[in-house]
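Hi team, as promised in this morning's meeting, here are the two structures we talked about. I've kept the exact order from the run log so nobody has to guess. The first one is mostly here for context; it's the second one we should focus on when we meet again. Sequence first, then the predicted structure tokens.
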Amino acid sequence: MGSHTDFSEADLAALRHAKHELETPPLGMKLAAIVGAPVEKLIAKLPGAANDKVNDATQAALRKCLQIALKTLGKQAEGTLEIAGAGAIGAAAGSKPGARPSNLLHKFAVATTGAAGGAFGLFALPVELPVTTTLMFRSICDIARSEGEDLASADTQLQCLTVFGMGGRSATDDEADFGYFIVRGALAQAVSKASSEMATKGFAAHGSTALLKLMQTVAARFSVQVSEQVAAKSIPAIGAVLGAMVNTVFIDHFQNVAHGHFTVRKLERRYGEAAVHAAYDGLDVALD
């Protein structure tokens, strides 16, 4: 196992596409292309209190997603989707495993919140980010379902949450180039402990040490991406249209990561983790 010849042509193509999505250019580069300015310089211009606002809003947003995961745990997949997956905004995708996810509908919903946020900037963050992140979480769950994941599973719910931590580097990563499997490996132990608690305690696991540790780890990485999003929308007179565009790029980035992550997991169920990892490492993918 492990060579490309072990994989069907279609599965190898799927893995190549997944690697392209997972090793995609950073969110900051994508946002810079939209707003026409380096995001790092925009971040430097943010007021001193911005970091605290971003951290607080990020924690609140992820807590909301965790509450959704806990509340839906143990329900049938169809019921879970109603809250955490396609739901009312993406019902057209249906609840069948493998049905296409409602990416465009979720992008439209997030663009709408971005239009409002563009008008009020940093002041709108505590209200906008939990809404935007919840919509993104629903989209990520929808994508997981489309790749054969069981949304009634504690592990799947947490895998959806960790996508927010896979979308870029954390503040402690320095300039090291951390690939998908390194980041996933760093999150794996925390996911395993939290998953075990959720499976045995359900909603009673809320506030447990393992869940809080996982959420803090994910938040540390996700807040970097949120800072870039906020900075891109901090340009004076950015307006509703550009605010919507920034949010669309934001959700598109995490949808790409989700598609890549859950494609890899689907292939691991088929070929084994070691074989997929070896094949992934052996693929040469040219990024846009």
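And here is the second protein, the one for discussion:
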Amino acid sequence: MIKEDIEFEYLVKSVSEDPRCQEMKQYIQHSDVTTFDHCMDVARRSFRFVRRFHIKCDEKALVVGAFLHDYYLYDWHTYGDHLHGYHHADRALINALRDFEIDEKVQGIIKTHMWPLNLTRVPGSREALVVCMIDKIVSAKETLNRPKEVKK
């Protein structure tokens, strides 16, 4: 393992190993990717992005916020909320506030990660902007890399 991977694992461990976050393994995010794996990928890629481009930021807030950005804990495919894209950031924030001690920066990351879909929730920090951007890239990759259905 390289030093950067060890540092990332150290930062994400406080949330990723929590039993409540393990619940995210039960829910599918996009295609066949679980919410847990999606959030881990967003957190890891956000961390690598700031390191590669030497962006000064609060790396702990970045990683924790990225990991908790979709901490809504339900199957959005069957939940019945057709406006999930607009509402799930609120549910993720409520859950994160209930289960973890998170600061305002982490709260902002979770709350604004769906910009520009939620036009009035503009990312207010470098960390929030990075997570918002990386989430869009990861979500597009997951959605476009769906397994092809077998024709009969």
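Starting points for discussion:
The helical segments are 3-16, 19-22, 35-52, 59-68, 84-99, 104-112, 126-144.
The first helix runs from residue 3 to 16.
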